[in-house]
Write a structure and sequence with these properties.
By secondary structure, this protein is mainly alpha-helical. Helix content is about 70%, strand content about 10%. Helix 1 packs across helix 2, helix 2 crosses helix 4 and helix 3 packs across helix 4.
Length: about 150
């Protein structure tokens, strides 16, 4: 039983990545740019250095992502009012909504329909499983970062 659940979890993870790549492509973005746009939305306004740290990427890689997102008017660089040397990256929610909300709304509608097919008890169990899985994965990520397997 556990093997079936593990295999399904891996398949869900793979399908989730494919779905995000498809949404990004439909919006005219790369999967990477789409992913980090949502980090900016979730944690912004954020400096490029802070974003690089969260993403575990170099500042050079992050600068390229920001440049591409800025070119599409999805983000903008805003100078800090107290320290003009500091630049924060801010999502342009209007443009993001225009490009991504229609795609997200279609998916949300389908997922909501699926969730509605489950009883409240089943929904509670699914919610518990998902929350517990997130906790396990966050701990695993932390362990890998603190004790890398390669040298």
């Amino acid at each position: 039983m556990i093997t079936d659940i593990t295999a399904l979890g891996r398949k869900l993870s793979d399908t989730t990545i494919q779905m995000h790549e498809a949404i990004a492509a439909a919006a005219g973005l790369s999967g990477t740019d789409h992913k980090y746009l949502y980090l900016i939305i979730d944690y912004g306004p954020i400096t490029a250095g802070q974003l690089a740290q969260r993403a575990r990427l170099t500042t050079g890689a992050i600068t390229g992502i920001i440049d591409r997102l800025e070119k599409r008017k999805l983000v903008k660089r805003v100078y800090d009012k107290t320290d003009r040397r500091k630049v924060r990256i801010v999502a342009n929610k209007t443009t993001v909504d225009e490009i991504l909300t229609p795609l997200s709304a279609q998916l949300k509608e389908r997922i909501t329909h699926l969730i509605d097919t489950y009883s409240p008890e089943e929904q509670a169990l699914i919610k518990r499983y998902l929350n517990d899985s997130i906790t396990v994965m966050h701990k695993f990520i932390e362990d890998l970062r603190n004790h890398p397997q390669h040298d």
